[in-house]
C-alpha cells in the first residue's frame, strides 16, 4: 500500500491532449476530495476544471504532494518540467509520478529532494520479487476489462463495476494494474513496468485465491491487437485467468491513440482475438459486457449507439459514466459462484 500525503496538486504542465492526461482525470473523477487544484504551464493545456494554482499558492493552500498527471507515449518526463518540479520541492511538496522514467533517476530532482527531505514516489516501479506465472487454477472469480485500444475506459469501467458490486453487498475488489489506478486505490502493480517474463506472475499475485463467490475486478492494460502494447495485454490476460471479460471501446475512434497509421479493430475483431487467448488460460472465460466511451457523443447519439451495440452483440452494453454499470452487474450477480476449479486448468491451444 502507498503512503502518499494528501491533498494533491495535479500537474498538467503543457499537455494539450486530454487522452494523455488520463492520470489527472482519473484522480479528479475518483479521488476528487484529495485533489486541491491543478498546475498548468500554458493557457492551451488540458483543463481539469479544478482551481488553477501556482506552486506557491498550492503550498499555501496545504497541498502535500504534486502528482504528475500526464501519461504520454513512452512515459518520459519532459525535460523542461525539471526546473518547475524543483520549485515544487522547494515549496515543501513531495512528488508522485507514474511515468516510466523515474524521478529518482533524475539527479536534479533526486539530489534536491534528498537535501530538502522530500519524498519521491515512483509508483510505476515496485520492489516486489515477482515470480513467473504458473497457470495453476485459483479459487474465486475474476473479471478483466479489455479494450480495442488504450486510454478509452478500462480503468473507469473496472472501478465502476467494483463500486457497484460493493454497493449491492457483493464481494468484490478493484485490482489496479496501472499508475493511475494505483494512486487512486492506494496499491497494486503497474503491469507495464514489469519485466515480460513476470507479467503473468504479477497478475496472479494481484488476484490470489479467494472465496468462491468473490470477484476480483482487474483493470486491463493495452490492447491485444495493438502493435506496441499487445505483449503486456497478453501477460495480464493469462495471469488473470478471467471468468468474465468486458470489452471497452470508443465508438468514434477510427485510429489507435498516438498511432494514426493503425486502424482501430471492430468490436467483433477484438472479441475474436481476445476470447481464444482468455480460454487458453481459463476455458470458462466469456464476454459479459461492452463498455462504450460515449463522452464525445450527444445524449441521443450515445443511447442509440448503446442500444444498437447491445442488440448486435447480445451483451450488456453501457457507458460507465453516462449510464452506470447496472446492466453488467446484473449479469455478474447472476453469474454462478460454483465454477469447478478444474475447469480453469491452463489449456495450451
UniProtKB/TrEMBL annotation:
Residues 48-125 form the D-glutamate N-acetyltransferase-like N-terminal domain. Residues 132-329 form the D-glutamate N-acetyltransferase-like C-terminal domain. Pfam families: DUF1611, DUF1611_N. This is DUF1611 domain-containing protein.
Amino acid at each position: 500500500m502507498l503512503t502518499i500525503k494528501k491533498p494533491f496538486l495535479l500537474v498538467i504542465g503543457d499537455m494539450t491532449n486530454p487522452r494523455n492526461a488520463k492520470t489527472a482525470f482519473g484522480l479528479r473523477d475518483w479521488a476528487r476530495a484529495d485533489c486541491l487544484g491543478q498546475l498548468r504551464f500554458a493557457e492551451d493545456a488540458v483543463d481539469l476544471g479544478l482551481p488553477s494554482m501556482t506552486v506557491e499558492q498550492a503550498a499555501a493552500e496545504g497541498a502535500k504532494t504534486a502528482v504528475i498527471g500526464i501519461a504520454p507515449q513512452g512515459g518520459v518526463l519532459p525535460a523542461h518540467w525539471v526546473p518547475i518540479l524543483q520549485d515544487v520541492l522547494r515549496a515543501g511538496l513531495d512528488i508522485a509520478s507514474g511515468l516510466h522514467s523515474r524521478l529518482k533517476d533524475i539527479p536534479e530532482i533526486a539530489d534536491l529532494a534528498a537535501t530538502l527531505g522530500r519524498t519521491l514516489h515512483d509508483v510505476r516501479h515496485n520492489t516486489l520479487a515477482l515470480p513467473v506465472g504458473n497457470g495453476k487454477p485459483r479459487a474465486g472469480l475474476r473479471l478483466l476489462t479489455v479494450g480495442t485500444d488504450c486510454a478509452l475506459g478500462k480503468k473507469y469501467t473496472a472501478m465502476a463495476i467494483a463500486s457497484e458490486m460493493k454497493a449491492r453487498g457483493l464481494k468484490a475488489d478493484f485490482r489496479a494494474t496501472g499508475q493511475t489506478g494505483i494512486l487512486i486505490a492506494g496499491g497494486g502493480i503497474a503491469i507495464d513496468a514489469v519485466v515480460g517474463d513476470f507479467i503473468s506472475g504479477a497478475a496472479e499475485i494481484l488476484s490470489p485465491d479467494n472465496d468462491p463467490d468473490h470477484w476480483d475486478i482487474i483493470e486491463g492494460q493495452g490492447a491485444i491487437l495493438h502493435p506496441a502494447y499487445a505483449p503486456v495485454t497478453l501477460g495480464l490476460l493469462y495471469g488473470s485467468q478471467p471468468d468474465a471479460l468486458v470489452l471497452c471501446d470508443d465508438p468514434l475512434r477510427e485510429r489507435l491513440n498516438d498511432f494514426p497509421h493503425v486502424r482501430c479493430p471492430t468490436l467483433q475483431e477484438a472479441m475474436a482475438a481476445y476470447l481464444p487467448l482468455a480460454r487458453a488460460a481459463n476455458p470458462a472465460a466469456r464476454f459479459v459486457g461492452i463498455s462504450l466511451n460515449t463522452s464525445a457523443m450527444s445524449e441521443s447519439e450515445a443511447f442509440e449507439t448503446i442500444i444498437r451495440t447491445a442488440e448486435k452483440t447480445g451483451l450488456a452494453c453501457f457507458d460507465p459514466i453516462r449510464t452506470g454499470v447496472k446492466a453488467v452487474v446484473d449479469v455478474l450477480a447472476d453469474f454462478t459462484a460454483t465454477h469447478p476449479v478444474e475447469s480453469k486448468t491452463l489449456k495450451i491451444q
